[in-house]
Amino acid sequence: MIKNVDEKIIKELKNVSLAMFRKNFFDISHGAISHKINENKFIINTSNAIFDDISLKNLIILSHKRDYSYQEASADAVIHSNIYQEISEARCIAYTLPPFTTAYSINHFKIIPKDYYGYKKFREISIYDPKEFSSWEDRADVEICNFLKQNNTNVIVVKGFGIYVYGRDLFHLAQTIALIENSVKILTLHNLENTLFKYKLELMNNNLV
């Protein structure tokens, strides 16, 4: 049951979740969003939450002590808990699967934005390779947190897995994800255009067009 939580936090979780769902950053069964309540507790979506209609029944309060409540919570709750404990600046966290970024991560080692806003904000984003997916669930909480701390960043793009990002407020968290996804979308379209141009040029050189 949700008690003594600022209504503003609940409203922001609902609004930001809906916005990111509409952007296709969450899917029906994967993704997570949370907000820190105090040093010992945070609120996160339940495992059966649908992000376009987050309400009190889709949210649960967890302490950092792992108890039975974690069985109802998102499968990513342990990762969120570890980040909150290890990084004091983290006030809210999201795990999302934006399609362009997730697809791009599979065959690249880094993201170097070519659009103005993406380049101005990030310059370059490393892509973390989790290696064996079979053991990733057991390693993810430690490895994600270590990467964020060691690289002094609030964003990690994990190959074939998606984006984890923490922030001071939910709006800027969502804005960060949208900025990355837009930059990767532009990169993808740019690369496609270059490929088509080269293909057309090759055809012309072979007198086929």
Main sheet attributes: strand count, strand direction, barrel closure? 8 strands, mixed
Residues in β-strands, percent: 15-25%
Secondary-structure element sequence? HEEEHEHEHEHEEH
Strand order of the largest sheet: 3-2-1-4-8-7-6-5
Quickly give the structural class.
Answer: alpha+beta
Q: What share of the residues lie within helices?
A: 40-55%
User: How would you sum up the global shape?
Assistant: globular
Q: Indicate the radius of gyration in whole angstroms.
A: 19 Å
Question: What's the rounded overall pLDDT mean?
Answer: 88
Q: What is the number of helices?
A: 6
| Uncertain stretches | none
Describe the structure.
With 209 residues, the chain is an alpha+beta fold. 44% of the residues lie in helices and 17% in strands. The chain has helices spanning 7-22, 77-86, 99-106, 116-122, 136-150, 170-205; strands at 32-36, 41-45, 59-63, 92-96, 110-111, 125-128, 155-158, 162-167. The radius of gyration is 19 Å and the shape is globular.
